[in-house]
Amino acid sequence: MTPAAVTGTGAANPASRTRKGQIWVIDFTVGIVVLSIIILIFMLMWNTTVVRLNVAMGQVEMQESAFLASESLLASPGSPPSWELMSNISNASAIGLVSGRNELNPAKLNQLIAQNATSYSIIKARLGLQLYQFGMNITNLGGNASYYTFGEFSNGTLNNSITFDRFAILNGTPVLVQMEVWG
Amino acid sequence: MRGFAITLDSIVALTFVLFAMVIISTENYQPTAPGEIYLKEVTLDALTVLEKTGGIPPLLNGNTTPAYQLVEAMPGSMCMEVSVVNSYGAVVAEIAKSGCNNSEGLDIQTVAMPMMYNGSQYVVTSESWFTEAPG
After folding, report:
1. Which residues does chain A have with pLDDT short of 70?
2. Which tops the pLDDT comparison, A44 or B49?
3. In a domain, B3, yes or no
4. Domain that holds residue B46
5. B106 in a structural domain
6. H-helix or E-strand spanning residue A9
7. How many domains does chain B have?
8. Would residue B62 count as lying in a domain?
9. Treating both helix axes as pointing N-terminal to C-terminal, what angle do A3-75 and B2-26 enclose, rounded to 10 degrees?
10. A23 in B contact zone (CB under 8 Å)
11. pTM of the model
12. What is the C-alpha separation between A180 and A155, in angstroms, rounded?
């Protein structure tokens, strides 16, 4: 190997290394930018997704609470069974409206309606609906004559509302019990 | 070549994750009554009410009005059919909610109950289904 050859080779290599280094830096920068954009999109979408999932889970819980409340009202007399005779409704541990399955007891209904203004929150809590609003309307089968109304209704203003229609008997006649849980 | 394969693999994986997140984030949640359990309870309600209000004997005598009023009051998306079968297995009375003639291929909730009328045994069966998938 001659000194000239060494000098010649040495003159070509630094230029090649510089170009290779520049390509690597550009590749690295582009990679970082693309990765940053992906991470940013991912973070934004992750937040939205978490919020959506929380809403969905909340609504599933509302559905279950609403269904259990309707069962409590139409399948049990409450606890104690004569809770309607108590002077303070907060001493009742469960609220039910029937004497036998689906047989509405007018005395329990009257007491529930009478307590609407003063003990709405307590009644909701006894039904497991303390996180929501609750309305109940007892009508004839055609839905055009209302016999008893309790609680509050959203009147269709909210998407976050669930309605249940159940059948029951009031004074020997079939009636429709319409319930709405919302909020 | 190995770097290219890894890059392609990561792009495909990220695309799937982003696609799933787009679907979740654009989903519109509307609460509905819990489908099958609710249907079962309403079916049981209907049969209980029909039995306790004396709506079945008229059905055997050809008066379908009490039972028909009840099945017609079923919530909009629900269908119901009530039938009474005698001890020989013959259907002696049958009514269905109007517009609910076809339950083929749908999930059906059934509640049955025995009864005695004029010294004969019968089984009252009520079948319910959704006209469309709930929620």
Report:
1. 1-17
2. B49
3. no
4. 35-130
5. yes
6. helix A3-75
7. 1
8. yes
9. 30
10. no
11. 0.75
12. 10
Say whether B33 and A59 touch across the interface (CB within 8 A): no
Out of A156-165, B5-14, B20-29, least confident range: B20-29
Give the DSSP letter string of A33-55: HHHHHHHHHHHHHHHHHHHHHHH
With contact defined as beta carbons under 8 Å apart, do B126 and B65 qualify? no
d(CA A168, CA B83): 20
Q: CA B76 to CA B93: how far, in whole Å? A: 24
Assigned domain for B8 exists: no
Residue-wise pLDDT for B60-103, tens only, equals: 998 999 999 999 998 888 899 999 999 999 999 999 999 887 77
Contact between chains at A102 and B45 (C-beta distance less than 8 A): yes
Which candidate, A53, A72, A52, A58, places its Cα nearest to that of A164?
A72
Enumerate the H helices of A76-179 as residue ranges: 106-114, 116-126
Q: Name the closest residue on chain B to residue A51, using Cα atoms.
A: B25
User: What CATH number does residue B103 fall under?
Assistant: 3.30.1140
Measured between alpha carbons, how far is residue A133 from residues A80, A85, B32, B33 in Å?
A: 24, 25, 16, 16
